[in-house]
Amino acid sequence: MLNHVLANSVVCRDVSPHDVSDYVNAHVGNHRLTVLGRGNMRSSLRYTDFAQLGLSHIDYGGEVRVQSPDIEDIYHLQVVTSGRCTWDYDGDMLSLSAGQALMMNPRERIDLTYSGDCQKLIVKVPEAVLKSACMQNGKAVPKDGLRFHHRVMELNASLAFMRLVEAVYEEASESCVDIGSISQTYAGLLASKLLSIFPCNLQQECSSVGAGQQVHLIRRYLGERIKDDIGVEELAGLCNVSIRTLYNVFAKEVGTTPKLFIKQMKLQSLHNDLKQGVGARNVTEIALDYGFSHLGRFSSDYRKMFGELPSETLRKVR
């Protein structure tokens, strides 16, 4: 299954496992290889970059152990096409056999043992690609980042996903020129499919709640991330509604726009910090902490809301 892909992207064939490991260390990611099998093990690697994705097919030709302190800022889709691969994650053992797949998160320790007949597809997916897919599908990326649960998926349970993975690999194999937007479409489709199939920590609280509850959820969400640069698109994604619907909700429930609501909450939090002397080094510094880069406009908005300049509030505290 899927062992025929990337036929035109052979990096090395019929070499020792250490030769494959050297290439992976130089071009894919840092790791340490321990050969557990005996005899004349012959390995192969096929690899190519496609639409921000890193696509590989690897066969060590014998039993090996692969260890790495983390996998950087990249998600890894691991698909076992034959044999078996076992992941020791802090004492929890996950075993994948042919026809099974698993998502690995950035900054997770890797400790994998390949059976002698194990072959795998590995897809490197940058954080930016999955974050973009979250926004396009109306999902808010959690503050601590998107994290997939450690659950093994049966490819037979989603033939459409398996065919999509195969299509991505086939397109990467056959494309000899930069096809731009078409290749990016493949990356977006794959990322969206990963989000829908593999369990993760995406917030899904707001798909069926009323307008008042949506405003409450947004207020809480902003309160937890008050110094972050949060846009209207992100709030619409949080509530699984369109931007137009979100504006209608705010007009009805709050009497203002989402953009102005964000600004008012930031100003109120900043005002509270100034009154309590929290981080009150100087007005410019604390304004920048909250994302107010246009200081003249910030001072004017602050004065309209509180009847005094921020410097006056700070002076009273001191």
Automatic annotation (TrEMBL):
Name of this protein: AraC family transcriptional regulator
Keyword RNA-binding in annotation: no
Short name of one Pfam family: HTH_18
Alphabetical list of InterPro entries matching this protein: AraC-bd_2 (IPR035418), AraC_XylS_family_regulators (IPR050204), Homeodomain-like_sf (IPR009057), HTH-like (IPR037923), HTH_AraC (IPR018060), HTH_AraC-typ_CS (IPR018062)
UniProt keyword annotations, A-Z: Activator, DNA-binding, Transcription, Transcription regulation
Positions of the HTH araC/xylS-type domain: 216-316
SUPFAM superfamilies the record matches: Homeodomain-like, Regulatory protein AraC
Residue stretches spanning the membrane: none
